[in-house]
Amino acid sequence: MKITRLSVYHVDLPLEHPYWISGGRLKHEVLDATFVKMETDAGLIGWGEGTPWGHTYVPAHGPGIRAGIETMAPFVLGLDPRRVLDVERAMDLALPGHLYAKSPLDMACWDIAGQAAGLPIADLMGGGSRTPRPIASSVGARTVADTRAVIERYRQRGYVAHSVKIGGDVARDIARIRDVEAIRRDGEIVLYDVNRGWSRAQALQVISATQDLTVMFEQPCETLDDIAAISGKHAAPVSVDESLVTLQDAARIARDGLAEVFGIKLNRVGGLTKAARLRDVALAHGIDMFVMATGGTVLADTEALHLAATIPDAHCHAVWACQDMITTEIAGGRGPRNIDGHLHLPESPGLGVHPDEDALGDPVAVYS
Ligand code: MG
Fold first, then answer.
1. Topology alike, domains 3-118+356-367 and 123-343
2. What confidence score (pLDDT) does residue 22 get?
3. How far is the CA of 195 from the centre of ligand 1 (A)?
4. Which of 89, 94, 105, 173 could be cross-linked to 166 through a Cys-Cys bond (beta carbons 3.0 to 4.6 Å apart)?
């Protein structure tokens, strides 16, 4: 089987509500999404999506995905999409780094490989759990009152897990954490995501002021060096997210004990092929995981769900469904959707959901 054609689509995805992270430093209103239709000489068609969380969140750039695909396409055409490692190596040779540009091509390859094998991607990767995964909300608010209101909005949609965005203002962060913990329900999963918004001193101030609550903090500081510098000075569990990009990052975090949880975002780390290695490093070191799309539609959410399903239930805390935060529907309501705050693994071969081409408009580029 050979890849014969790549069609690239660009769609802007407006968010339902304006969204702030990192203590209001970063505001997001629309996501730049790229979709890839991968055709083969066997008639199988795979789809991939790459949607960074804007261009201020981590080093990733929506237009850069399309430019990257233009560069990599000649190296990928003609390869067998079922041989995902061959495709991965070809992309890494053609364009070192730029993992976010590679993830949609990797996703389309896994979609085709699953269809060819007659298996959902998670089963093709070795076996997918059918335990529904709780969806973590993304509470991009700034004040105590806003935070309560957004959590309540998600509770009404059935959500039992919440990622509360904090960072940037010590007193306000402490107040928001204490308020959320006061209204937290039994069984609710809450993660406090700083999105790099604290200096080392700010991190230690907030963590020590809330240590009686034993809450978990995600990406408290900018770099792994910062997180390492404070790690011996507090007892709170830490999740690392933005600073977990490569296998080398995962190895360092695991070896040096810098985090108890990995936040794996598929687009940031370059897709399923590379993310599976991060999963294995985590499992080998007693590190639990959140698995998420970096942003985007039901396609990106479903990709994340397949990886989440390959993690033993006890070690996968939650996934995230960006589809509930955007106002554009590109798959006619098909694919895994929020059911009582959970996503259920699709049983159809491959990814399990494809977009309506009419909803994507004309391709912005075609390579064959
Ligand atoms: Mg995060």
1. no
2. 67
3. 6
4. 173
Catalytic pick from 37, 102, 165, 274?
Answer: 165
Question: Ligand 1 centroid to 239 CA: how many Å?
Answer: 8
Q: Is 2 a catalytic residue?
A: no
- Whether the full predicted model's pTM is greater than 0.90, yes or no, is yes
CA of 368 to the centre of ligand 1 (A): 37
165 catalytic? Reply is yes
Write out the E strands in the chain.
Answer: 3-21, 26-40, 45-50, 133-139, 161-165, 189-193, 216-218, 238-240, 261-265, 288-292, 316-320, 342-343, 365-367
pLDDT in tens, 17-29: 877 776 667 778 8
Q: State which residues of the chain have pLDDT below 70.
A: 22-24
pLDDT at 54: 86
**Among all chains, which residue has been given the structure tokens 């977009």?**
355
pLDDT at 141: 77
Catalytic residue among 37, 102, 265, 274: 265
DSSP assigned state of 59: S
**What architecture is the 123-343 domain classified under in CATH?**
Alpha-Beta Barrel (3.20)
Nearest to 273 by CA among 310, 314, 222: 310
296 CA from centroid of ligand 1 (Å): 15
User: What distance in Å separates the CA atoms of residue 250 and residue 12, rounded to the nearest whole number?
Assistant: 32
205 CA → ligand 1 middle, Å: 20
Cα of 81 from ligand 1 centre, angstroms: 31
Q: For the structural domain made of 3-118+356-367, what CATH number should be given? A: 3.30.390.10
Domain ranges within the chain, ordered by starting residue: 3-118+356-367, 123-343
